[in-house]
Amino acid sequence: MGTTVLVVDDSCTIRKIIQRCLRQAELGISEVCEAGNGQEALELLARCPIDAVLSDIIMPKMDGLQLLTTLKGSQQWNHLPVLIISTEAGAEAVIDAISKGASGYIRKPFTASEIHDQLGPLLKASR
């Protein structure tokens, strides 16, 4: 069975860019699922097995930090690595995300190599 990653961002364009970067990063990801906000992500997680989550912070309905808090507070999903990809570049945002359980933080704009360097070890550890 292959690796499935969930990309959560309210911008369809950013989700497509992340998908392209994931392909370029050559991490052995077999499927990429998409959600437009944290609420959609939780609905998808309830239906599909996911190996890692890449999430923006600023989104409508449920933002990335609320999603992160929900995942880390759940017995079902607390093991999932969550990588934050956001324009929120300040040290406070990074510290907040890491303190809530994020496995890493990438600032937008990003490159495929940044995703490879951060997500690769997380996927290896979860296999």
Output the radius of gyration: 13 Å
Shape: globular
Strand segment tally = 5
First-residue to last-residue Cα separation: 11 Å
Summarize the structure in words.
- It is a single chain.
- The protein has helices at residues 12-25, 38-47, 64-72, 91-99, 112-126; strands spanning 3-8, 29-35, 52-55, 82-86, 104-107.
- By secondary structure, the chain is of the alpha/beta class.
- It has a five-stranded parallel sheet, sandwiched between helices.
- The protein starts with a strand and ends with a helix.
- The relative contact order is 0.19.
- The mean pLDDT is 93.
Task: Write a concise keyword list for the protein shown above.
127 residues; Rossmann fold; alpha/beta; single chain; globular
Task: Tell me the layout of helices and strands.
Blueprint: E1 3-8, H1 12-25, E2 29-35, H2 38-47, E3 52-55, H3 64-72, E4 82-86, H4 91-99, E5 104-107, H5 112-126
Parallel strand pairs: 1-2, 1-3, 3-4, 4-5
Helix pairs in contact: 1-5, 2-3
The gist of it:
The protein has 127 residues and is of the alpha/beta class.
